[in-house]
Automatic annotation (TrEMBL):
Domain PhoD-like phosphatase metallophosphatase, first and last residues per copy: 160-529
NCBIfam families according to UniProt: TAT_signal_seq
Region (Disordered): 261-282, 563-586
Family matches, as InterPro entries: Metallo-depent_PP-like, PhoD-like_MPP, PhoD-like_sf, PhoD_N, Phospholipid_Metab_Enz, TAT_signal, TAT_signal_bac_arc
Residue ranges occupied by any Phospholipase D N-terminal domain in the UniProt entry: 52-147
Protein's recorded name: Alkaline phosphatase
Pfam family name, one: PhoD
């Protein structure tokens, strides 16, 4: 497919309040490792609101507001110290706060790492709002948010960005700067790997050129609650990430790296027991359940996500993070969570044959209660479209032919392909849906895909029996096929070989990093891929992740038409919205 490129020049955003001078300097300069390791504490000392503001999980009448306060210089993230602190908040109809529509005071303390969450209710739908916090004689940066376009009998525009896999040591967060610069988004959907658990030693992940420039804090692998709190705080010092949070409401869900690589219900690929010989002489990793509990606590504290208890309660196991959002008669968005309860990953082959465990109905990617919630939503939907936010690839991906590869062998058992009973149950629900057309939105694979979702892959070349489509965003910075395979030529070869073995894969790019903008109308859903670029190069010759002055540019656009459940295009990039959120100012 021909790529269409529209270069957009963006100046590096400067966050002006709450200690952002230290954060901006960190992102733009090549400091020593010691200087970088002190970044979190420095940002905390530089102001009460040094980690910015955010909003999330908007509905028609509610929105969640978030910040983190540093009441005293010693109350740095993860320290466990600091007195309880009163924090004021205001929501206004105008950026100048002449019309404050809601306000209040809440208290935070070291027990929640001095993070703050406030849910503001009773708001008008599809309306833009501004918010701020006060504490310790300081005022936070002003954030902008909006309620959802969800009004009975009304069909509004819906446009969101979706993104995943933002590794601090992998490069500058130019993609977030591109998102922050947009004025046409209702929502940012983050599909996981918001942060990475690795340290700066042998487990360092990312370009060697950034060692000593963008290093993780703490410098070792995150294991404890304090470690994960500090890691979240480090990411929140990035000015581009702060700006994207400050500009738009987000809906987020975690994947594996918020805890450990390839996590499952009882462990992870990147977690060994304390008595494992591989851990001799290094920091013991301890009990995985305790590690995950600390990681998820820090995630709930530091992210603009609803507290799971009591919000949209459904039958579930563990803690319910899956949830659903409605956008009038146009679309629903089901956000699934695929790490807490999944069965352990298994090999794709055993004894020279396909592994029958891949299709074992006793193995699950999501717990049965969540799977049933998702399939009920698909079959009972009353909107034009049902969007599904999935951390891992949903489409079947067969391994490309090679010596030792068996016919029908899947390429990877960590995505839905490793849990085929759940995969088939969802495909059956898609096939049985007579209302909303399904569109899966996915991250995780550090590359860009558009795929159709057949129920019978053997028949696909004959009758293209697709029951839905999947659009996959590239990573923000994490290594993709180009980096993993050693160069552009190898990534381009994969982009040819994978669709040849999997004809339902209609688009694949393994070079670019960036994000996807999704636009939904009653007639179609369009996905625009935006890649970061250095001097116009998406990564063919250069590595734009290393360039702090990189830009973002349009790469290609594909659509699925209502009723087709197929991918078509390319088409021209998106233009203006059909309508815009209201102003509440009078």
């Amino acid at each position: 497919m021909l790529a269409m490129v529209t270069e957009t020049s963006l100046s590096r955003r400067t966050v002006l309040k709450g200690g952002a001078a230290a954060a901006a300097a960190l992102a733009l300069s090549s400091f020593t490792p010691e200087r970088v390791r002190a970044a979190v504490a420095e940002t905390a000392r530089s102001g009460v609101f040094g980690f910015g503001v955010a909003s999330g999980d908007p509905t028609a009448t509610e929105v969640l507001l978030w910040t983190r306060v540093t009441p005293t210089p010693d109350a740095v993230p993860g320290s466990g110290v600091g007195l309880p602190t009163a924090v004021g908040w205001e929501l206004a109809a105008d950026e100048g706060f002449a019309q404050v529509v809601a306000s209040g005071t809440t208290t935070t303390d070291a027990g929640r790492d001095h993070t703050v969450k406030v849910v503001v209710s009773g708001l008008d739908p599809y309306t833009r709002w501004w918010y701020r916090f006060t504490a310790g004689g300081e005022t936070s940066p002003v954030g902008r948010t909006q309620t959802a376009p969800d009004e009975p009998g009304m069909t509004h525009a819906l446009r969101l960005a979706f993104v995943s896999c933002s590794n601090w040591t992998g490069g500058y967060f130019t993609a977030y700067r591109g998102i922050a610069a947009r004025d046409d988004l209702d929502l940012v959907l983050h599909l996981g790997d918001y942060l990475y658990e690795y340290g700066n030693g042998e487990d360092r992940y990312g370009p060697a050129a950034l060692a000593g420039v963008r290093d993780h804090q703490p410098p070792v692998e995150a294991l404890s609650l304090a470690d994960y709190r500090v890691r979240h705080a480090l990411y929140k010092t990035d000015p581009d990430l702060q700006a994207a949070h400050q500009r738009h409401p987000w809906t987020v869900v975690f994947d594996d790296h918020e805890t450990a690589n390839d996590a499952w219900s009882g462990g992870a690929e990147d977690h060994e027991d304390a008595d494992d010989p591989d851990t001799a002489g290094v920091r013991p990793e301890g009990d995985f359940a305790a590690r995950r509990a600390g990681a998820l606590q820090a995630y709930r504290e530091w992210m603009p996500i609803r507290e799971p208890e009591g919000w949209q309660p459904q039958p579930h196991q563990g803690t319910q993070f899956f949830r659903r959002f409605t956008f009038g008669d146009l679309a629903e968005l089901s956000v699934v969570e695929t790490r807490q309860h999944r069965s352990q990953q298994v090999p794709t082959t055993v004894g020279g044959a396909l592994n029958p465990a891949l299709a074992d109905p006793a193995r699950h990617l999501v717990e049965p209660e969540q799977r049933d919630w998702l399939t009920r939503g698909l079959t009972g939907g009353r909107t034009s479209w049902h969007l599904i936010g999935s951390q891992t690839l949903f489409a079947r991906v067969l391994a490309t032919p090679a010596p030792g590869v068996l016919a029908g062998q899947v390429a990877n058992s960590d995505p839905w392909d490793g849990y085929q009973a759940d995969q088939q149950a969802v495909l059956a629900a898609m096939a049985g849906s007579t209302g909303a057309d399904p569109v899966v939105l996915t991250g995780d694979v550090h590359s860009s895909w558009a795929s159709e979702l057949p129920t019978d892959h053997a028949r696909y070349p004959v009758d293209r029996n697709s029951v839905g489509v999947e659009f996959v965003c590239p990573s923000v910075t994490s290594d993709g096929p180009k980096e993993a395979l050693g160069g552009t030529a190898a990534a381009e070869a994969v982009a040819v070989a994978v669709p040849a073995a999997n004809p339902w894969v209609r688009y694949l790019d393994g070079i670019g990093h960036g994000f996807v903008v999704l636009d939904v109308t009653p007639e179609r859903v369009q996905a625009d891929w935006w890649f970061i670029r250095s001097g116009g190069d998406k990564g063919l010759l250069l590595d734009p992740r290393l360039d702090p002055q990189a830009t973002v540019g349009h790469e290609t656009s594909l659509v699925t038409l209502r009723g087709s459940r197929q991918v078509s295009g390319p088409v021209p990039p998106l233009g203006p919205r059909s309508d815009s959120p209201r102003s509440a100012a009078r």
